[in-house]
Amino acid sequence: MMKSSEQWDDGPGPTTPGERPLRGWLDVHAHYTTEHYGQACEASGHGQPDGMPGLPQWSSDAALELMAQTGTAAAVLSISSPGVHFGDASPAADAAARDLAAHVNDSGAAMVARRPDRFGLSAVLPLPDVDGALAELTRAYDELGADAVALLTNYHGRYLSDPVFAPVLAELDARGSVVTLHPTSPPGWEGTALGRPRPMIEFPFDTTRCVVDLALSGTLAAYPGIRWIIPHAGAVLPALAHRVTVLSLLTGEPTDFPAVLSGLYYDLAGTPLPVAVDGLLAVATPDRLLYGSDFPFTPAPAVGHLAGELRRSPALRDACFDLDSGSPAAELFPRLVKSPRDS
Q1: Which of 289, 151, 155, 290 minimizes the C-alpha distance to 223?
Q2: Contact assessment for residue 13 and residue 277, using Cβ atoms and an 8 Å cutoff
Q3: Which of 55, 167, 177, 268 is deepest in the core (most CB within 10 A)?
Q4: Which InterPro entries does the record match to this protein (predicted)?
């Protein structure tokens, strides 16, 4: 029987033979929505975002119930694709994106203020509006106390290595920011998705495209202070790591890509088992792996099932998803370690 959120504590969770004890995981890939955000998506033609049936319903109570079930101590909340900028580069579209970013970040910060022990915030930015993004980044950190920043893999077809985004990356680098990367529909998806929802195939490939480009362009090296969390067990990156290295010699961008991947962090949202984790562990050590639920875009029953599979996986025996001092989660999100969990 699922424990209520008010019964949750930090002690070891229930286990069955073959399962490792739980002390409280950190979920670094958790989403939230608001009624106003849903209305804005609908009004802009994103009522079925990225080809999905619609935005799922979310509430803090439902999130806390699921966290209790899965042994999750805290969750870092972010807005998912399609983000907040729905128009072109016009002043009107930029202004609307700034307002929507402020709304969702204020809403997320309010939830954190109510339960600082259970929630963190990865703030959204109104990119590709760089001036608006810089202003919101400053406000998110200095006024709202954000724990991280959420970036999409591309903004209206512009990838993060685009020089126009350099001021934003420089500020993130100066602050030593944690960036929770999230895929979105790639440019030209109309011809490549073949009528299917983009999260099925396009999302993993856009994550891969973005990270390969960040590496080969020198962007990752130029901003070493940014700590990147790559979603969905690294998407297709492990499978292509050595191919990228070989072909980078031909493009004049020689890169030891497996070495680059070993320096990033990865969440295990989506479908990391039974195959993806093995590939990921060929290029990243267990101390680079983090738990991710993708709730509510992944329904609660599927989240619960995956959590159980992760606990039982022999491949993850050396991984630590807890908020214990010294864990990867604690290193990236120290505020949540310090927050007492009395209920």
Answers
A1: 151
A2: no
A3: 268
A4: ACMSD, Amidohydro-rel, Metal_Hydrolase
> Cα(60)–Cα(147) distance, rounded to whole angstroms?
18
Cis peptide preceding 274, ω within 30 of 0: yes
| Each residue's pLDDT tens digit, 121-133 | 999 999 999 999 9
Residue 24 near residue 323, CB atoms below 8 Å: yes
Cα-Cα-Cα-Cα torsion 147, 153, 156, 159, nearest 10 degrees, comes to: 110
Q: Could you report the per-residue pLDDT of 133-172, keeping only the tens digit for each?
A: 999 999 999 999 999 999 999 999 999 999 999 999 999 9
> Does this model's pTM top 0.85?
yes
Give the dihedral sign, CA 32/28/265/309.
negative
Q: How far apart are CA 324 and CA 258, in angstroms?
A: 28
Strands, DSSP E only, in the chain?
25-31, 72-78, 119-124, 148-152, 154-155, 158-159, 178-182, 227-230, 265-267, 289-290
Domain limits of the chain?
22-338
What contacts 24+ positions apart, CB below 8 Å, involve 250-253? 251/216, 253/216, 253/217, 253/218
* Dist. CA 45–CA 42, nearest whole Å: 5
Please state the φ and ψ torsions of residue 261, each to the nearest 5 degrees: -65, -30
Neighbours of 176 (CB within 10 A): 10
